[in-house]
Design goal:
The complex is a heterotetramer, with 2 copies of chain A (about 400 residues) and 2 copies of chain B (about 140 residues). By secondary structure, chain A is α/β, with parallel strands linked by helices. Chain A has helices at about 5-10, 40-50, 60-80, 95-110, 130-140, 155-160, 185-195, 215, 240-245, 280-295, 300-315, 345-355, 370-375, 390-405, and strands at about 25-30, 90, 115-120, 140-145, 165-170, 195-200, 220-225, 235-240, 255-260, 265, 325, 335-340, 360, 360-365, 380-385. The longest helix of chain A has 20 residues, at about 60-80. The chains are: A alpha/beta (about 400), B alpha+beta (about 140). The structure holds pyridoxal-5'-phosphate (2 copies).
């Protein structure tokens, strides 16, 4: 399949035509935090509110029927995108809620004192704190597996960490700090061989890497719509069939019951069982539209573009002295995330000066304090790429980095 | 926006050679403040002579904005009364938040007038001043 | 203040110009389920995604600063609307999440065996099941207070039900079934006199009744954006200052920490402490815009219009034989919700035939099975009004109801 | 949409005077099915004669659509073989879901062809048929 030229993709994103007061254009390199939205997604939301808006199910009117069927179609689209069945896909507000839902809904039911919960030191706080807190509450051991200085996992170290006492292994398929792709298949194989349940944080992987949950064999997968061109306030949680009976609904309320008696409630079947309250229908249909857009671009093209830009950036940045680039140099194990530090310059100053150049990056601990502490750094600056970025963006980034160096030299 | 507006030479200079950096030999009081949005911290030490700030020093971890602001602040308030320092504190915070033309009393600290245009960096510029307010209260 | 003529308001809502294939126009009478959105709200969301979209806080770039400040402004608007301080207002995905957050975050920390949790039998499942489940988990008593056949509470019965063992009293300010307004001040006074904490389900009250949390004196208040002209996927949770220190964060993850160590985490201060993960910024600004729209209409005018339509409907419907109208006839204690049954006709048939007339109503148990069972009915049909409805809508509703009767006579 | 399309006279008639309503004296089997979207329920009883449905009856709680559909269904399948009933079941469900022109074998049950336009009511029309499928399986 031929990939679309990068300059062509950019045009689909209204915000990317932003020009600031000083005449500089916006160079958006903060997609690992949140992505911009194509026209089609924005218009889909507008269309929903202008022509289809209603609460789902149980309503016997036409708008209700439309909203219900659009919501069902959205679930099919999102489920298909990750290789799941529709009833295995729960809509949540995002990765953080998805992971908490597993920690409460599966974790509290199944984790006992002296069990172990294993995470990587490189996890995002959203895939770290919920497990840390669950372990404390259940009296389980919370085991943090180190990663190598280049951000990759040492499979031998990981293998030793997972034991027959391990109940849950939770890790990100792709890290948000350095964009490192972990060997998810091998790691899940190791976890499963010890009987542990696997929770995959897909916040950074689902937007960039074609994923088939059945083939990979995970038990749970969490992801966010806003990191894959979709709206804010919507996300997904895949619960494999083999785990769904070991859970209890985490949120209770309207829309998830069969029958409510005074002292007990009979819950409905999944997915409804795990979606209490009025769902975010506009969010779900917006996310489905985002997925259709991604599929049209082609997930292979997206990862290709990531790597082309990353290699291009490395080539240019390698020539600049005093720059530390984080993460493995095996670009096959990377998505389009570039983490760096400039000697003697605080990352917050880097970000501010880049911003003055129109370049939007992020600096800080990236919600990954354990990794930062492990590596003995406090922060990094992070530029992250997505479908709408092009080589010219990298050129502007590199020039801006040079400007930072000059100012502080 | 021209980065030179915020990263003026005087700021870069103070960042590279912060004045009153380090610890006092016999401090009367020390406060520690953390910038919650990034985790950077400042330790501020003072030695009083009655109502006067006789000596002052700081150390910690911070960006150019917060380091330079701390450095300039210590120069400004060393030797003056608590009351006067409190007054400068209020003027500085007002200027940093609003971007309004500052009193000439703020001297070099006036270089931070432009920080109001970078709302997320206002905290960096005011951190040392908040520490000052705490240490003299 | 002069209220806007009803026909004028309708024009602000694009979906209300819907005309079906058969030439009938949409008569939307299902606002208690979810409300339609004015142009200004839809446009605000579009504007956010086209010009302001970024993740909040910590970002040092211009878009991040805009998104952060718009999010903060939205919080101020929503907080002001209910008389709260910004730091007392947590954004959630809606009422259901808000109530669950209290049940887990406050309830699990403070409810002990032999404590009591008191609710009304008329509660929506979202304010019933979470307490039922909490009581089971904590070994507390779950006490259900009956209401009178007209849906109102008997204060003497309620007073007797609340004892010194009562830890939590949870009830809706306004019921979604019959639109009955409970005497919230008196009930809170009774609960507080026994030392109980009060949780108010404001899903139906906040959209219709001007509310000041301080004046009313509740501890917690939950509400949904989508029921007050705002987007789906956003809602509010008011946590009074006096309770915030008795809670622990319910969701953990990014954005709500001060410091993460291997075995413990220091959480940030409210409101951030209770908002883990990327917030729904587009939802929050959309909700703030909805509130600005409501304030322009005037909350007094909204409740006035509710009652005008309700009285008008009652006058017409009272003349039709075989109709049961539910709820007190003291219209001062009602919002614009009309629940009814037609003798010998199943409510689902009523809804379908009304739908064929273009009239969108809802029928079923309205997520209030305990009330339905208590009253010995299975379902009702429910027409619910909001700012955009007019007398002509009631005329069409009444004609359609007559048609139902004829068909089944 | 004209409500008369769905609420045809034959439906109203069956709703008011449901055929085969009540309980059998000596049933071989009974199933209960609930319509999860509204909580309505149907109880279906049959008496077999070898492979043939000798007698059939239903009772329960339901709307006009589900009651009439149950009534018409029992008329259709009383006296026929299980195999034939299974065939009709498949044809009915297909028609109700898609709105496609039904086989003439469905007789009066063809009145539900229009229900496909009311997606949320399809379950009502098919509930009794699903119960049938369960009871003969
Ligand atoms: C009284 C009441 N409480 C709670 C809810 C639940 O609200 P949501 O579905 O927006 O979470 C509703 C609406 O369905 C309601 O009417
Ligand atoms: C790896 C990873 N996990 C989890 C999250 C949390 O996602 P969200 O904030 O959308 O809940 C993020 C993004 O911030 C992330 O990058």
């Amino acid at each position: 399949m031929a990939c679309r030229p990068e300059s062509d993709v950019e045009k689909d994103f209204p915000i990317l035509s932003t020009v600031f007061e000083d005449g500089r254009r916006l160079v958006y390199l903060d997609s690992a935090a949140t992505t911009q939205k194509p026209k089609s997604v924005i218009e889909r939301i507008t269309h929903f509110y202008e022509s289809e808006n209603a609460n789902v199910s149980r309503g016997a009117h036409k708008l209700g029927a439309i909203a219900t069927s659009e919501y069902a179609k959205a679930r099919e689209t999102v489920a298909r995108f990750i290789g799941a069945k529709p009833e295995e896909l729960i809509f949540t507000s995002g990765t953080t809620e998805s992971i908490n839902a597993i920690a409460y809904g599966w974790g509290e039911e199944n984790v006992h004192p002296s069990d172990e919960i294993v995470v990587l030191v490189s996890e995002h706080h959203s895939n770290f704190i919920p497990w840390q807190q669950l372990a404390r509450k259940c009296g389980a051991d919370f085991k943090i597996v180190d990663v190598k200085p280049d951000g990759t996992v040492d499979l031998d170290v990981f293998r030793k960490a997972v034991t027959s006492r391990t109940k849950i292994v939770a890790f990100a398929h792709v890290t948000n700090t350095f964009g490192v792709i972990h060997p998810v298949r091998e790691m899940i194989e190791i976890a499963r061989s010890k009987g542990a349940v696997t929770v995959i944080d897909g916040a950074q992987s689902i937007p960039h890497i074609s994923t088939d949950v059945k083939e990979i064999g995970m038990d749970f997968l969490a992801f966010s719509g806003h990191k894959m061109l979709g709206p804010m306030g919507i996300g997904g949680l895949y619960i494999s069939k083999r785990r769904v009976n070991e859970m209890r609904p985490f949120f209770t309320g309207g829309g998830m019951i069969d029958n409510v008696e005074d002292n007990f409630t009979v819950f409905a079947h999944p997915p409804e069982e795990y979606e209490a309250g009025t769902p975010n229908v506009a969010g779900a249909v917006g996310l489905a539209t985002a997925i259709e857009y991604l599929e049209k671009l082609g997930m292979v093209c997206i990862l290709d573009s990531d790597r082309t830009l990353l290699e291009y950036a490395y080539k240019k940045l390698d020539k600049i002295e005093g720059l530390t680039l984080y993460g493995t140099r095996d670009f096959e194990k990377r998505i389009g995330v570039l983490s760096f530090n400039i000697k003697g310059v605080h990352p917050h100053d880097v970000a501010t000066i880049l911003d003055a150049h129109g370049v939007a990056i992020r600096s800080g601990h990236h919600c990954a304090q354990p990794l930062m502490k492990h590596l003995g750094i406090f922060y990094t600056s992070r530029a992250s790429f997505y479908v709408y970025n092009k080589k010219e963006d990298i050129d502007i980034l590199v020039d801006a980095i040079k400007d930072v160096k000059e100012r502080f030299s | 926006m021209d980065p030179s507006e915020l990263y003026a030479e005087v700021i870069i200079d103070h960042q590279k050679n912060p004045r009153n950096y380090g610890e006092l030999e016999n401090k009367d009081k020390e406060v520690k403040l953390t910038n919650s949005s990034c985790g950077d911290e400042i330790f501020l030490q003072v030695k009083f002579d009655g109502d006067r700030i006789q000596d002052i020093a700081f150390y910690g971890r911070g960006c150019a904005i917060s380091t330079a602001s701390a450095s300039i602040m210590t120069e400004l308030v060393k030797g003056i009364s608590k009351e006067k320092a409190e007054e400068l504190y209020e003027k500085f915070v007002e200027m940093a938040r609003t971007g309004k033309a500052p009193s000439s009393e703020l001297k070099d600290a006036r270089v931070f007038q432009g920080v109001s245009k970078y709302p997320l960096r206002v905290k960096c510029a005011t951190l040392a001043w908040h520490a000052l307010e705490k240490v003299i209260e």
